[in-house]
Design a protein that fits this description.
CATH architecture of the largest domain: Up-down Bundle
Helix content: 55-70%
Shape: globular
Order of helices and strands: EHEHEEHHHHHH
Number of domains: 2
Strand content: 5-15%
CATH class of the largest domain: Mainly Alpha
Structural class: alpha+beta
Strand order of the largest sheet: 2-1-3-4
Radius of gyration: 17 Å
Largest sheet: 4 strands, mixed
């Protein structure tokens, strides 16, 4: 039995949830409230840094969203092949997965984290660098997403699982705007995808916690 320890608002949890819903893999969600000392301690026993998501599959405990999706592709492939079996086709999927995590997701989180910091601990230089990284990422994506339906081409893959939470939250803190219509259209397709629409619906009761 697979158990996913998560929070419905956590962006990297979204990435894994989309993969689980796409493959129709049965799992048990365990929502963890990090403000609860008992729940936080239990999570840290599984993952010492206390970060989401954490997937338990029998005796295996897997952390980090990409590693979890790789594990699912290997041991629970399900209905959809989120990572193609052909290495030459899989490599671009993995490359785009890293692109969205490193150059969209991470700078987005830097901006969000700064918003919830105390006034005397703000990092304006770090935020400026994060915004510059996002601007470059948007520019890189624009011509690419104007030529394909999904991040790595025709099929929906792990790359799109990574793109959905990254772009959704990035657009909240650094709106795409008129200069990136292809990326905005791609984000609209992601939001309309049943797997991501389900994730957004489950997250809706917690959106008031997001520092807009």
């Amino acid at each position: 039995m697979i158990t996913l320890h998560l929070h419905p608002l956590a962006s990297y949890c979204w990435k894994v949830l989309i993969g689980l819903y796409e493959t129709e893999t049965p799992f048990t969600p365990n929502v963890v409230d990090l403000s609860d000392d008992v729940q936080r301690s239990a999570l840290k026993r599984l993952a010492p840094f206390g970060k989401f998501p954490v997937l338990c599959d029998g005796e295996r405990t897997i952390t980090e969203s990409t590693t979890i999706l790789e594990h699912l592709a290997r041991f629970h492939p399900g209905r959809a092949a989120l990572i193609p079996s052909d290495p030459d086709v899989a490599d671009p999927v993995r490359a785009k997965d890293r692109f969205f995590d490193l150059y969209v997701h991470e700078p987005m989180q830097k901006i969000v984290d700064d918003r919830i910091r105390p006034a005397d601990e703000k990092d304006p230089l770090g935020v400026a660098r994060a915004r510059a990284t996002l601007a470059i990422a948007y520019d890189v994506l624009e011509p690419v997403m104007g030529t394909r339906p999904w991040a790595a081409g025709e099929p929906f893959t792990m790359a799109d699982c990574a793109a959905a939470p990254a772009l959704y939250y990035a657009n909240e803190v650094a709106p795409l705007g008129p200069a990136h219509p292809a990326v905005a259209a791609y984000l609209a397709r992601l939001k309309a995808r049943p797997s991501f629409a389900r994730v957004l619906l489950e997250a809706a009761p917690y959106f008031h916690m997001f520092p807009r």
